[in-house]
């Protein structure tokens, strides 16, 4: 399997058309096959020319440290998933372990889900949102965030006067 993994990384490296295009090689081998296999695959990715390594799902700070030591001079990605297998660490902790990039792919939608549960729970129990004490994104700001200014401009430009 490592040969196939290496070949895929090599194809990605070979296909890039610019030195500004970086290849991030990810392995999910840790969960099913163990950390040692994931590290072997990381080595294969590097030999194939990958620029950044993403060893998914280390299960402890010790495993994160081992990844950092194994790939001491390689940019590493840490996947911080609330409720996932990897402990959530802050920037300084991750940097001290050798990680240069951290992603938090679930934080926003988990926070949004909690906020929706809270406000809709209030509406369900009281019949309204007016007594809810949580934070709301200002309506006008949210409209701009969603790009409605372009819609309004289009309507102004193309509406019949």
Task: Give your account of this protein's structure.
The chain has 161 residues and is mainly alpha-helical. It folds into two domains: 2-103, TIM Barrel (Alpha-Beta Barrel), CATH 3.20.20; 107-158, no CATH class. It has helices spanning 2-15, 29-33, 35-48, 61-70, 91-96, 107-126, 139-145, 148-158; strands at 24-27, 52-55, 77-79, 101-103. The strands form two sheets. Strands 1-2 form a two-stranded parallel ribbon. A two-stranded parallel sheet has the order 3-4. β3, α5 and β4 form a beta-alpha-beta unit. The radius of gyration is 23 Å and the shape is extended. The model has no long low-confidence stretch (mean pLDDT 93).
What share of the residues does DSSP label as strand, in percent? 5-15%
End-to-end separation in angstroms reads: 67 Å
The main pleated sheet reads as:
2 strands, parallel
Question: Could you give the count of β-strands?
Answer: 4
Helix content: 40-55%
Adjacency order of strands in the biggest sheet:
1-2
Structural class: mainly alpha
The assigned CATH architecture of the largest domain is: Alpha-Beta Barrel
- Overall mean confidence score, pLDDT: 93
Taken in chain order, the helices and strands follow as HEHHEHEHEHHH
Task: Report low-confidence residues grouped into runs of 5 or more.
Answer: none
Radius of gyration: 23 Å
Number of helices: 8
At CATH level 3, the topology of the largest domain is TIM Barrel
Query: CATH class of the largest domain, please?
Result: Alpha Beta
Based on CA inertia axes, which overall geometry fits? extended
Considering the protein shown, what is the CATH homologous superfamily of the largest domain?
Answer: Phosphoenolpyruvate-binding domains
Tell me the number of structural domains: 2
